[in-house]
């Protein structure tokens, strides 16, 4: 599709609730911020932090990076993502991906924990990257484990057109876990990715391991934004990460146009 202008994309983000007044509640956001401040591993998404990052610190950073309400007294109801922050981060992500592609046959690694939402964005980016000479790394395919918080059901790493996801008995599933990416990176045999494009624990684990990483993150997933603040994540794009897949088409077209400009 024809890429939207910035103002057209901004209107679209608000209309589809990818940004603006989002579906994620204020209660859910603050609960996750507290859990991360308490260093619950589930909410760290594979990252560790040098700074103490108390609850108020996490809230302040999320107000700055994602555009949630900065008011600690606002404890319930609606919360927001600033669409201009989303677009600014898309611009930066596009520049990073474009710079990698301009370097000549880069090694890229794609992964998503949102097969019902963000997968469509990752697939489009991966196909675009291949057309422009990228090599997509697919380490660890078939690696399996049984996470305790999902009833110890066996899950495996599988790829669809070069995008890693978790498979659970024939279906791709939502995950925040960093263990799959940690295993994938451990099986690279020295073939280091030039850039990782991911979300959730896939992005967190890559950034923690020192790989250049750009990622998407919802306003209730603050870890990638803390990782960005500490220099482990190059770009974290704030957005609702689970709206209808077709709603991401204009965003994807805009992002691809920014990648193209950087080539």
From TrEMBL:
**Which InterPro entries does the record cross-reference, listed alphabetically?**
Phosphatase_SCO2771
| Origin superkingdom | Bacteria
**Protein name as annotated:** Phosphatase
Species of origin reads Spongiactinospora gelatinilytica
């Amino acid at each position: 599709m024809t890429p939207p202008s910035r103002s057209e994309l901004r209107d679209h983000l608000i209309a589809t609730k990818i940004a603006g007044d989002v579906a994620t509640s204020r209660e859910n956001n603050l609960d996750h911020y507290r859990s991360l401040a308490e260093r619950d591993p589930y909410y760290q998404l594979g990252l560790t932090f040098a700074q103490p990052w108390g609850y108020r610190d996490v809230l302040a950073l999320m107000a700055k990076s994602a555009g949630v309400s900065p008011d600690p007294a606002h404890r319930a109801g609606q919360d927001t993502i600033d669409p201009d922050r989303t677009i600014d981060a898309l611009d930066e992500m596009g520049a990073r991906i474009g710079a990698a592609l301009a370097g000549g046959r880069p090694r890229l690694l794609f992964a998503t924990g949102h097969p019902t939402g963000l997968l469509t964005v990752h697939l489009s980016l991966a196909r675009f990257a291949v057309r422009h000479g990228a090599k997509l790394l697919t380490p660890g395919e078939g690696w399996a484990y049984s996470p305790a918080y999902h009833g110890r059901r066996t899950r495996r790493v599988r790829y669809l057109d070069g995008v890693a996801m978790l498979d659970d008995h024939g279906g791709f599933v939502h995950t925040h876990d960093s263990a799959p990416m940690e295993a994938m990176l451990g099986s690279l045999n020295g073939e280091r990715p030039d850039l990782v494009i991911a979300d959730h624990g896939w992005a967190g684990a890559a950034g923690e391991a020192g790989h250049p990483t750009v990622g998407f993150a919802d306003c209730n997933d603050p870890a990638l934004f803390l990782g960005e603040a500490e220099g482990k994540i190059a770009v974290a794009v704030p957005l609702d990460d689970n709206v209808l897949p077709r709603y991401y088409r204009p965003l994807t077209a805009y992002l691809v146009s920014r990648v193209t400009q950087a080539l």
